[in-house]
Sequence to fold (361 residues):
Amino acid sequence: MTQATFAPHHYTAQLAEKKVRLSELLAPFSAPEPEVFESPREHYRLRAEFRLWREGEARHYAMFEPGDKRKAILLQDFPIASRRINELMPRLQAAWADPALGFKLFQVEFLTTLADDALITLCYHRPLDDAWQAAAERLASELGASIVGRSKGKRSVIGRDYVEEEFQVAGRTYRYRQPEGAFTQPNGEVCRKMLTWACDALGQRSDDLLELYCGNGNFTLPLATRVRKVLATEISKTSVNAAQANLAGNGVDNVTLVRLCAEELTQALNEVRPFRRLAGIDLKSYEFGTVFVDPPRAGMDPDTCELTRRFERILYISCNPQTLVQNIAQLQDTHRIERCALFDQFPYTQHMESGVLLVRR
Fold:
């Protein structure tokens, strides 16, 4: 999204159009009317990435239209980004005047939270030396933010390499470690609404939950309070480490986390082959009633989709309605849509985040 498409006065109409589109996509499956969860009109995006663009002696934050890396859109502020990012942008820009920080700096990334934590990643086309380290330490102290410096083969951390987030869900506060470079939901307020909806859709259960693609435990923490126990899987080592820290930090002790991709877990549950990473875990001890999936844009592969068919309930969060529809088409002979929702993670764009609860017919 660029500044040109930022139009708060059109937000209500744009959201209504998304609801119509999602309803049309799900109409062949006799879906109920989507529940709609709107976004704040501005300052909703908790992370942002900018290239640096030189004009004469001055350098600016820059973004580009998709597919066009030659014509830069120069920015002084970024109204869709969090207030913390907008507060940090001019102060960081002023620091570029110091050659120790500004020399061959080509990209800046901001990661912030609703809890007002901040981390700045500075990317360079040169090695990071002692002068950079000293200047970055001063800057981190002045900005009240952590800083990560990146150059080829080098990563230097001042402060922490993660931010800390807090979400209030169903009367409880959950605290999350969100690592630099790992996936996190960009719209914090909408993420909180997604977590609340997912907990409500799951309900209070006496059986167990299987979670695929658990990431840093974003959904795992609140969903674990609704079931007897959880088996959660994730392939990214960074996300697994964050999820383990988040489970421990929130005192959640009924989750077993396994570093497997969804395809590997499918093979394990189908007893195609054993995995050393499942040593000591008795899969047959679980009484799975629900599977929760939050897959990448490609959706679930056919084998994983077939695996979910064996569950009474499938709780599905999707970042791509097209692949969601493909997966539902594979499942529609055994499952029906009981609830669906639209989460407006990305206002002023065509992107739609959605959720469905499928239950066995």
About this structure: The mean pLDDT is 94. The chain has two domains: 3-41+185-360, 47-162. Residues 127 and 153 are 9 Å apart (CA to CA).
